[in-house]
Amino acid sequence: MTFLKHTLIPFLLLGMMTQAQQTPGLEQKTRVAIIGGTVHVGNGEVITDAVLVFEKGKLTVVSSQARFNGSLEGALIIDAQGKQVYPGFIAANSTLGLVEVDAVRASDDQEELGELLPHIRSLIAYNAESKVVESMRPNGVLLAQATPQGGRISGTSSVVQLDAWNWEDAAVKVDDGIHLNWPRTLSYSRNWATRSWTLESNKNYDKEVRSVQQFFDESKAYLGGARTPKNLPFEAMAGLFNGSQHLYVHVGDERGITDAVAFAKHNGVSIVLVGAEEAYKVTELLKKEGVGVLLSNTHRLPRSEDHDYDMPYKLPKLLADAGILVGLNTGGKANFQSRNLPFFAGQVVGQGLDKEIALSMITANTAKLLGIDNEYGTLEVGKSATLFISEGDALDMIGNQLNKAFIDGREISLESHQTELWQRYKKKFESN
To answer: pLDDT of 249-258, one tens digit each?
Structure first.
């Protein structure tokens, strides 16, 4: 009996933690028209007093009312007068759906044992019923890149929409890219006598880079040969070499960035930098090679004592001003931070960047970097009706108050376990 008690209780607790209170929205049946609101297209354009129409999940009209001369007969009319309409925000480099509770190992599926794991696919581990996932939607985060962590080559990510029954339904772009954690050029060593840490050059850096290059060389040789016996890691590399996948390189320092760009060029693969805290030092190189950057969240301290105190805040503007394609990501393992994605962009506005350009860093730019910009990222005719209506400025914590949201034309619930708790305790204090 004691054995059963200690065995069953953790499973019961886990079941309680992972039970979600969401039901995916129904497929769009009725034509929908949103009129009178201010539409933020996502590419820098703003349309005031707009009319936006979508049916069967696709946008058919995005225009000002003054220019619209079509008919809205039979459409469901949503009055958005005084409100703001945005494309759904995209959380790149996120562990959403892969981790539920950090302290509960059974709910943590973001990392596998091993170093070179391109064949590990995050998509099949994605939990569409995660309570963490459902808490993103009320802030306008409607899409995410489920990204594996750890090792030298972490695995393969996929882009998902955040209102689904299962991972098959959630998939927007399957296996969009492979994630490489670039070797560190610097490492810390500890003096146990003085209990102090010293930053010094990584003596194994060149060796670690050669190891990655060897893996790429062996993959190319395997893929160009008979492919026998079957090697799953090598098989998974095919998308990089045929151009159907990006190589997402997680790297921070100047030398690492420079070496990673040269590495990608040498191997003929498309590269996106993730993190890239010192990208401002090599903007000419990035612009010349057409390399985009997914910067980490702006709500953090500088990565190095040599960086300006406000570097995390102003870095997106520095790169955007230099002509680099910039997206904002949520910082990898900190999946709870994904709900703050719009406020990361708002932080950049506070540094002097135009608000619509900042918006593009979590919509249009991110969609381009993830390779989904033909369907998502902007509100344009022919694209997916993945959008939301906010009472005010969605990049501001006070203005970000959603009253309706749609994914592929399906109206989705904005309720979560957090909004339920808010309503519950709101009544308690209203009664006093």
So the answer is: 999 999 999 9
